[in-house]
Amino acid sequence: MTPSAAPSTGGSSGGSADPEFPALLPGLLRSDPGDVDLGRPARRSPRDWAVDTVAFLLAVGIGLIGYDTALVNNDPPEVVQLLDLVGGGLACIALWWRRSRPIELSVVCALLSAGLTSVAGAAAVALFTVAVHRRFVVAAGVATLNAVSGASFYALYPEETTSWPESVALTVLFVAVVTVWGMFVRARRQLVLSLRARAHQAEAESALRVERARHLERERIAREMHDVLAHRISLLSVHAGALEYRPDAPREDVARAAGVIRASAHQALQDLREVIGVLRTQPGDDAHGSDPERPQPTLADVRTLVDESRQAGMRVTLADGRADDTEPPQAVGRCAYRVVQEGLTNARKHADGASVRVRLDGAEGSGLDIEISNKPPVGSAAPDRIPGAGSGLVGLAERVELTGGRLQHGHTPGGDFRLHAWLPWPA
User: Fold this and answer.
1) SS3 assignment for the chain
2) CA-CA distance, 107 to 189, in Å (whole number)?
3) Per the database record, which ranges form the Signal transduction histidine kinase subgroup 3 dimerisation and phosphoacceptor domain (predicted)?
4) In the β-sheet with 355-363, what is the strand arrangement from edge to edge?
5) CA-CA distance, 11 to 114, in Å (whole number)?
6) Which residues are CB-neighbours of 26 under 8 A, at least 6 positions away?
């Protein structure tokens, strides 16, 4: 009997018919990649059916070759021959469940192969399955059992042309080849799963970074929308309120107020259209000739902002204590403009009729101070005063912190409301 027909080793080529790849990842991701099925799906795929069919036919073929060789060399009794065929047939049929019970099937086949030659093919396929789906310690134990069964078989049925030590050596060699082959397939599957898991993780992290960047950009746009529209709409409300309470005003005053309302409404719509346009802009549109973003306001635009408030009837004084008209960096100047804008808007909402003082001070290297203070409101609060969302100062504080500055607000001992911001102004 040749080693390829040995009950514990034969059919090493049967392992090549089992290269199926797992479809799931849980087995690999465990801390102990041991007795797991490498994520095999519960139902067989067409590929699994093809692989199982080839493994079954290969086991039957090897078993028949071993059975024929045993008849030629030993001529066992007919009862033994019948038991050999029945045992080999049952072992080959059991291979259809080799994925769910690989260890049990391999142990039973190894024990049967010690006396039945037709079980050789099923034992080889079962050993390969264990090496693929179980950790090294388990595969080594099953391989040792197969080697011992092969040695026992050659002790019961010695070959005429080969000595017992030589037969045992060849059996051990084939057992080692089948086991190492199965372990190689297992390592390759684990590598594929690891690479696939890393690819999924990289894609997920990339998607999270994109989503975070989009979220931050939308938050910035929302702050801009609040700052701009709250200012414009508060101006509209002041002028509309003046027309409501002075229906007998001179025609020139009514026309002037109506003109301011129209201009403010037009500007508010323009600002809203620009913000919506930014939200609708897709990545890469700038490269195809889309309109550039409108220039952002700077510290120099504070005077225009104060003039608009004065035209709306507010009593606003501006004290610019800077040594010269040097402009701070663009980000600092834009943040300073938003601080003054939010302060004037809050004064119109909550202190209607009160005087407001805007103070600017600072220089390069020492930072920029912005202070907006207003007296308590004149009279009782109007029942139809401009509503507020209560989030303006929260967003403003975040904007100032992102610039590297500090924001303070609250009532002074004299009852005035004071909004103070310090912004860095590097030399």
Assistant:
1) CCHHHCCCCCCHHHHHHCCCCCCCCHHHHCCCCCCCCCCCCCCCCHHHHHHHHHHHHHHHHHHHHHHHHHHHHHCCCHHHHHHHHHHHHHHHHHHHHCCCCHHHHHHHHHHHCCCCHHHHHHHHHHHHHHHHHCCHHHHHHHHHHHHHHHHHHHHHCCCCCCCHHHHHHHHHHHHHHHHHHHHHHHHHHHHHHHHHHHHHHHHHHHHHHHHHHHHHHHHHHHHHHHHHHHHHHHHHHHHHHHHHHCCCCCHHHHHHHHHHHHHHHHHHHHHHHHHHHHHHCCCCHHHHCCCCCCCCCCHHHHHHHHHHHHHCCCEEEEEECCCCCCCCCHHHHHHHHHHHHHHHHHHHHHCCCCEEEEEEEEECCCEEEEEEEECCCCCCCCCCCCCCCCCHHHHHHHHHHHHCCEEEEEECCCCCEEEEEEECCCC
2) 24
3) 217-282
4) 315-320, 355-363, 367-374, 417-423, 406-411
5) 16
6) 36, 39
CA distances from 107 to 31, 56, 168, 260 (A): 27, 18, 19, 93
CB-based contacts of 228: which residues, under 8 Å, 6+ apart?
Answer: 268, 271, 275, 341
Per-residue model confidence as pLDDT tens for the chain (427 residues):
334 443 333 333 333 333 333 333 333 333 334 444 544 555 777 877 887 788 788 878 877 777 777 666 666 677 777 887 887 888 888 888 888 888 888 888 888 888 788 888 888 888 888 888 888 888 888 888 888 888 888 787 777 777 888 878 888 888 888 889 888 988 888 899 899 989 998 888 888 888 887 777 677 767 767 666 776 777 777 767 767 777 777 777 777 777 777 777 777 777 677 666 655 555 444 444 444 455 578 888 888 888 888 877 788 999 988 877 778 888 888 888 889 988 888 888 888 778 899 999 988 888 899 999 998 876 555 545 555 555 678 778 888 888 889 999 988 888 889 999 999 988 7
Where are the domains positioned within the chain?
3-205, 298-427
Q: How many CB atoms lie within 10 A of CB 325?
A: 8
Which neighbouring-strand residues pair with 418?
373, 410
- Is the pTM above the cut of 0.90? no
CA distance 46 to 150: 35
> At the topology level of CATH, where does 298-427 sit?
Heat Shock Protein 90 (3.30.565)
